[in-house]
# Entry
Amino acid sequence: MYKRILLKLSGESLMGEQGYGIDPLRLQQYAEQIREIADMGVEIGIVIGGGNIFRGLSGSKKGFDRVKGDQMGMLATVINSLALCSALEALGRPCRVLTSVRMEPVGELYQKDKALRLMRKGNVVIVAGGTGNPYFTTDTACVLRAIELEADVLFKGTRVDGIYTADPEKDPTATKFAEITFDDILERRLKVMDLTAITLCRENGMSLYVFDMDTVGNLRRVIEGEPIGTLVKQEK
# Structure
């Protein structure tokens, strides 16, 4: 079993069956799954996207300044992080939100040593605000945090059960990979994460596992090694 993981959650998935915002049922399901593996002794860091509230890049296409748009997106991740932290605390699991830019008293400023101390004491640590810089996605942020916090693996929880040859929601002929390398992802131009995030993983030896987080119980299954998603490895 893994000692320490970094879990990337999709902001869009938090919408559940809604078209916007946070679905209380989905939030509760996520919190229960995270508490379950935390109770097993796994140290957990989390990065959440903000696409259920605002996307900086799409905002810039509608007239927003790109930097301000990305900053709005960072704030959206803070809202999602606070919601998940509150849900975890309601279940009795200690949780702390750290932010990549100063935002006290909303959250404490992220520092590697502080995050590690909290995780070792049993706190789930949610790092909000992306990297704190515009032009970087939360995919890049989660890889950066996984490397900094020396996670055993980076789990990307999505609404799809792994990596496919094409988007399975659009192409019924798409086939799923059980394993794939970072080089193959780059060569095939698969939209798993942005290129910066994939390159960071590859160059720093960070393994990536993509799975369906929306199915209740799947987080425990991947922690226990059940092959229900796609493992991205360093070499062929």
